[in-house]
Structures
1.
Amino acid sequence: MYNTVTKAFRDYYGHAHTIAAYAPGRVEVLGNHTDYNEGYALSAAISYGTYFLVSPAEDSTCRLVAGDLMAEVSCDIQSPRRVTENTWANYVLGVLAGLQARGHTPTGFNAMFLGNIPLGAGLSSSAALEICSGLALSHLYDIAVDRLEMARIGQKAEHEYAGVKCGLLDQVSSLFGEDNALVMIDFRSLETQSLAVGSDAAFLMCNTKAKHALVDGEYNERREHCEAAAAFFNEVLPHPVTALRDVSWAEWESHASAMDPLTARRAAHPIGESERVLAGRALLDSGDLEGFGRLMFESHDSSVNYFENSCAELDTIVAAAKGIPGVLGARLSGGGFGGSVVALIHPRDAETVSHAIQTVFKRAHGHLCDVAVLVPSSGARLIKD
Ligand code: GLA
């Protein structure tokens, strides 16, 4: 893919790029909607990602080409405003605005990006684009940005240019991923820790290709409920609550009946998820993959029962997975309402499990889902030719 985009860049602009960066997508393994609640998550960068190539322009024009569509969006470097057509450009324009808040961008640029992360699959193709463009452009303009700051720039682009009030999971995972390891993220301290995944474990991505309408609105609404719940607990608990991270499952159980029922259900999910992540880390440390897999199934049930961010297509796969020999656990990964299921399996079972999932899915929904093995991979980087 790198060779393809290098050549396409040269053909399009008539000269070679000067800087290239790569950022991977991510899979969320445990810890759903915990990030903006300052909880914990376990994720991995994956071996699908996006390249961003750039060279400085002689004038103030920024030209940005989506290499898969060969569509161009241009703007003046001083006004990277949000666009309403070719909205893929917003992720880069938002990042550019974020960089401009931190440093000087005297000239325009010629840029092109190309990736292989399936779109809408819940594997964070948008975060990958933010991060690879952020790395390349910060290098082009010599603006010093550390990895956490880069993650925040990407997040702000999502908030202000794409309208999704996301947390930091996607950007941090793309930046801090490591080969054959999960990234454990504490979203309060923003510390990350790498947890090696033994050769006995593999992850399957099952992309339903379902994307339901109003997803962004649903996401933002979930976040609002979580914030309202945190404010409630801050009133009733004897200790301060600034986010649902500060509320234990036991505290939720003893106060849920006094809450607005919908807000209580929404709050249950991230609270339970953070506790599952902590339990899951201990199980991984002791090599208990079966136990870890059970937590993944519990996570999905919590999505269905409390957060209502699943959908029929995701539920088909998880329900089937519970009965397929060789599947240790399965759950929806990412925002929800469509996208992918991630399943934990032993590598030797990849083919039979994939086939079994495909068969059940096709019978239920009339088309195949895409199934692929995900390999935990290293995070975003500049490419040195
Ligand atoms: C999306 C968001 C993330 C996170 C997940 C759910 O991927 O972009 O910030 O909230 O959903 O865990």
2.
Amino acid sequence: MEKQIMSSTPKKIKMEERKGRRVVLFPLPFQGHIRPMIQLGNLLHTRGFSITIVHTTFNSPDPSLYPHFTFHFLHEDILSQSQTDIIAFLKVLNTNCLQSFTDCLARLLSDDHESPISCFISDAGFTFTGEVARQLNLPRLVLRTGGVTSFFVFAAFPFLREKGYLPIQESRLEEQVAEFPHLKVKDLPVIKTCDPDYLFEHVSGMVNGAKSSAGVIFNTFQELEDAAIAALSQDFQVPIFPIGPFHKLLPNSPPTQPDQTAAITWLDKQAPSSVIYVSFGTLAALNEQDFVEIAWGLANSKQPFLWVVRPGLVNGSDWVDLLPKGLIGDLRERGLIVKWAPQLQVLAHPSVAVFWTHNGWNSTLESVCEGVPMICMPCFTDQKVNARYARDIWRVGLGFESGKLIEREEIERVIRRAMVGEEGKEIRKRVLEWKEKARDCLGANNGSSFESLERLVSHISSFDSLVFSSQ
Ligand code: UDX
């Protein structure tokens, strides 16, 4: 396998004409990671940097949508691997991309026809890239696509293991974590895997890789995660750049794809603030029983809904065929089920009242930015921390209290609380306050994210004297 990787040649798709400082971006090949990295690329591009994206052929973005970027693809041997165990897949990615990424970057550095490289920015999940930076003597920044609060909990994993909170024991799920007063043991950011040792190794690689980088970029804003940003800045000796929400810093949101307009056309016909938008992101998978309960809960709630059932959401099925025929009929009377929705436009739509979400970081932030309260149903890793904060600290969401299996009656109750109850009104009021803060942080007049971005641009520019003398 190694031989194959060694001999693989990165395929160059587009050479852009723009000259100037260049930044190479290396996203993890999952939608929840690719999207913020591309947004970061767009942000840096508006600040005069040329952008090169190095990506696996697996899950690659379509280069024709980004004609202002140059793309290089790594032909690594990962396509045959199952992606159902995310941790096992991360191990394969980190092992198999090491050589091909190093070769690709070395080639880019020696290419005289392109503008010189100031630094590269790797997803924090590519844990081997610190070593590559050292070998090639190139500054490396890290983009952590999750929030700072959850990252701070990841950084405490050794301590949480020492104290016996991790690995999680079923009997301690409801116990408060003394050192993290807002979290219970069940909120700790873990995930089921066949390789639990690698989970700890990966988290440690991610945290140490960030600590030894030239700086860590977060898609968040100071006001939202003030305490965690302060704590992390104290713990890490490298600069921290909270410059989000990325998508709001960009002049235009991406165009809606033709096959996604159905969701917006349907929303246009609904009453203001009446629709529950339901989406569990790009990786979470439900078992059949939970899927059926969710469908019954939505049908019985009698509220209009827009539900994303993406291929892979339900184990053992690619669409709604596991649901009883009569139920599908009921659902279609009241709602729309789609395979993918233009989420940014959906959340900004006046008909949307509530977002039932898995609390992936992008979804959480996007909901806050549009002032849409949440029904929180985290599945794994950072989503658990995000959901706890959405519910108890930012107080913009409601959650389920029952055990692991959510029942239709509880779903109905939570939907009613969110849509018509007093609590619903309160979380709506608060999320609108957060929406304002999310907007204010972008302002050129003392906006915290605006200033952080300025700091990041100067930081990257400061590498030039260091790097160009050695290129
Ligand atoms: C994964 C992890 O699950 C999450 O915890 C981590 O923070 C990032 O990576 P993911 O499941 O992809 O997240 O969810 P999320 O972070 O919310 O990102 C999903 C992105 O896809 C969002 O930007 C969302 O707007 C977009 N999306 C999703 C759509 O545009 N349409 C859809 O139908 C579904």
